[in-house]
Amino acid sequence: MSRNVAQKLLAEHSVDLSTPAGQEIALPIDQTLTQDATGTLVMLELEAMELDRLRTELSVQYVDHNIVQNDSRNAEDHAFLQSAAKRFGLWYSRPGNGISHVVHMQRFGKPGRSLLGSDSHTCAAGALGMLAIGAGGTDVAAAMAGRPFHVPMPRIWGIRLEGRLPPFVSAKDAILELLRRHGVAGGLGFILEYHGPGLDSLSTMDRHVVANMGAELGATTSVFPSDGEVRRYLETQRRENDWTEIIADEGASYDREEVLDLSTLEPMIACPSSPGNVVKVQEVAGRPISQAYIGSSANPGYRDFAVAAFMLRDSRVRTSVSFDINPTSRQLLYALATDGRLGELIVAGARLHQAGCNGCIGMGQAPARGTISLRTTPRNFPGRSGTLDDQVYLCSPETAAASARRGQITDPRELNVDIPTDIRTESDMIDSELIEPPVEPEVARTTELVKGPNISKLPELEPLPEELTLVVALTLGDDVSTDEILPAGSDVLPLRSNIPAISEYVFSEVDSGYVSRAMERRARGGHVIVAGENYGQGSSREHAALAPRYLGLRMVIAKSFARIHRQNLVNFGVVPLNFVDPQDYERLSKGVTLRIPGLCAAVSSRDAVEADLRGDSRPLELSLHLSERQRRILIAGSFFGHLTNC
């Protein structure tokens, strides 16, 4: 039987390809990736699991999110992560070495391997022909302990690429076009597989751009073939022996098919405040900007910076614009400095920041209120930049550089500049000085975890009761992101290892009274949250499930859920329910009381749940679609309660 790339990767990892779509599969994991915003909980979870040494082929702990050290807390968490890497047998990428996704591509990614990361953009490694999936930290900790990753069997969506990108149009415009077509939940339940003759014109780092932002489509992951271009990339990284060819068989088919003609694309831009709010740059051209920001996990390659340098050569950015250059790895920074591109950017007016996620996650570089910030980042959810009422637009490096030069949103095709057609896509300079390898097992066993005063134990979570009476504490609309559930940024992220403290910020930018209402209800059974479509999109950080659970959240009723957040809710004993009739959403306003009799029995064996509403004689019909494994976790009250019972 002819197989596509995704099917080959699944079959190579013992997945029965006849499994119906949506049914849970158990995927063996070869590699894991954690970063400091999520990795602190992962390491505490490994300690709780009493893991002696990780069971994966390779695991890496990166420090890339919380590298702004305004006080001692981040530095102390870095010391904890470094000690945990030694204790459990991980590689450790130190602060300043770069963003996890690009460094993993450079140093560790291998075609054909499975990669699970506690970061939603782990899917970027699909550019190498990997089966790379983002997940919550609990699932990653379980994988590090040798357990398979459980995920609904995806369908495969083949996207045939034709033609070549025109001048001043890049890979970012290609993925923005797909977001324009399908929105932020259009890929839910799918692996996106790119194929066709248009692949020949896309470098591995171009493919990284596209695969990275597959997360914004809600896809399980994205995959590209491991072809001659991937081999060329690995040769630049001195890792040609890691290359394996993985291409689709002739005649391979897909569950869904689409054509994207690269030659017809124009510069695109995502307007505030969603990656799916995409229009042509020409439609918003002329709007004044205050910031142009280049560099993130979505545009991490050498070319993304070099093309901006060429566009700004012999010119200056407008004095009204903060031109922020965010190097994505130490290795990239070294290359840009050596070949003169960095100097050209600085002469043009660039502000240089350390290699890491930085402003993308709200750690510095926040824009002024009421002004437009153009960013080559993957997300523009409300307030994610660090400014509550921000106006962040997502675009390509070409558009960001052109707009910085003019001081307003500009179609880069309008500039009379020459960009070389042979810009290197990636430098062959290698720098791994800030990566520490695992220590020997005998050293690991004697390593003590270094815990600063800000690191607290994981909270104990009680099992699911037979009956719950809950009050609706909050009602929300569609596409609520985990950034809105629990903000990131320099005030909140340093509390990532202290659940009681970070819980005080839950929904702080949505409803300032939520925490007090939740705490008032916590001792009296807890509360429920009601939401629309695609609840929990965005970041994989499980704090957005655990912190509300700590405040007494026992149930979320939504029209639909984002994949990662739904599993995070289950892992911490929060029951995710769907409306049978979406119109019933209107019946659940804030303050309504629900009584759910026989809840534990329903979770154990049924897909239907009925709730009684106080003052309403008509029962509320809800659905509960869970695997047997998820049912056991919910009844135990958490993944760790389930482990104790096993």
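the 2nd protein, sequnce then structure:
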Amino acid sequence: MRVKGKNGQIYELEQNPFSSGGEGSVYNILSNRNKVVKIYHSGTVTKELEAKISFMVKNQPNASILNQIAWPVDMVFDQNGKFCGFVMPRLNITTVLSNVYVYPPKYKISFKEKLIIAQNICVVIHEIHKAGYFFGDFNPRNIGVNLDNGSVAFLDTDSYHIVIDKAAGKAYRCNVCASGYAAPELLGKCYDHIAKHPADAKCAYEKAPLDTFTAETDNFALAIHIFKLLNNGFTPFNGVNENATASVAAPGVGDTAIWRDNYCFKKGKRPLAKAVPPLAVHPSYIGDMFTRAFVNGRKNPASRPDAMEWYQSLARYEKEIRVCSRNKLHMYRKGLSSCPWCEADNRFQQALYPNANNGNKNNVIPAAQAASSGAAAVSVTVSRSVNPNAGAAVSGTQVMSINPIKAKEVVSGIFNLTGWLAFIVSIIFVCMPLISNGSIHLNEESIKNIDVIKDAIYTISAVALLCFGSHFNKSPRQGLATGMSIVWGVIFCFAAATAYYVQLGYSAANANATWRFFGVLVGSYVAAIVIGIRLGEWLSNLGTGKLFVKANS
């Protein structure tokens, strides 16, 4: 298939699409693997749609996020010169955000990695808002996630809400909004419009007077996504009366729960879902932001935190967490006496199996039972690109890939074990020349037989390997590993410097040489510990590392 760009460029497309949705199909470009083309289905193209795509091509957001949004970069026309679609970047994702929300978890994603995903979402939103656009339909199926690196990608950008002239009522409108993500003021406006125009019940977002979607309605939906990422995938609007008994009225689902104002941490409410932890497990500044988004924001939408404020707070939260000693995917803020995620899992299990023996607090409920947890379990349409590494995902159809986290866990576990063994062996290796007939001899003769340089190489290498392995593995004992490395380093450096001085002989010149040797030892030890930790953390985060620095507000 051949289509022509707005400036005459010819795009040769593969014969068959690799992805299809309700509006159109997506094709690979034969000569360009970095871009794809969306061709609209016959009958879906209108003059307004053509004008909207033309506007988006001419007014692109910051180039830094163009590889994370399915943004139109060129219009395409068929052989008759009729507008039929647009060119957009190929998006590299492995799943969609709705799958990340499934509880019990579908993927092995740590709490830190969820914080990173949330921050990456905030960066894209910030830039879209700076460019003057609104998402409107903040559907989690339209947010792709790459589980290999933590990046996100936004799909279906041609549905974004673009206000051209509010006074004249001119806008390229978003006509849909996923249930459960519409702000209360938006629902109120639509309900009022439907009361006056019953025939518009199925198209209220399109017909209601402006403003409909705004930065504030986006900020409301953003807060819901962040709440879900931080609270086992559950909606914040699953609240029931705090003093409710076991038999309680359902809080409602989707827009109904929002309209009823069933925020689960509002005064007098509690979460219906057992796997939602108390709000106090998060830092107070995070709890305050949820209050602003869902309580204060109901009366004054402008009080909701925006994407940049969320980003900065989440980055701060990320620095304040520790790893659970029982489950390294569980991470929680320092200062808590126990892991809130283990406790949430236990409450969930107890609710499912009230008569079961829950003595083992590390039980894991299979993901197949997620549908009974109260969190939405979502099915995804899977398509395969001709290029299996392309990773494109557009128009609501996703390309799935095998999550490599399992293999990394095995490798990091081996390095962690090897590091501990090397550390123990290095201590034995250093001490062995001083042991004779079951006792330690520290006389001058035994000290002169010590090969200080060789011992230093062994111990420094062992410390580096221990720090690397424990941090690569995200071991709950990584703090112990670092502490023992420091203690052993101090002991060895002083002992090795003393042995070196004895071997050189007692003189002022040799004392100066010994101090220089001591400085080299200390520097080498510090470098080994720091490099081991940094390299381990880098490799550990390589599969889910933060890809963005803070954007300018």
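Residues 359-405, 543-553 have pLDDT under 50 and may be disordered. The two ends are 44 Å apart (CA to CA).
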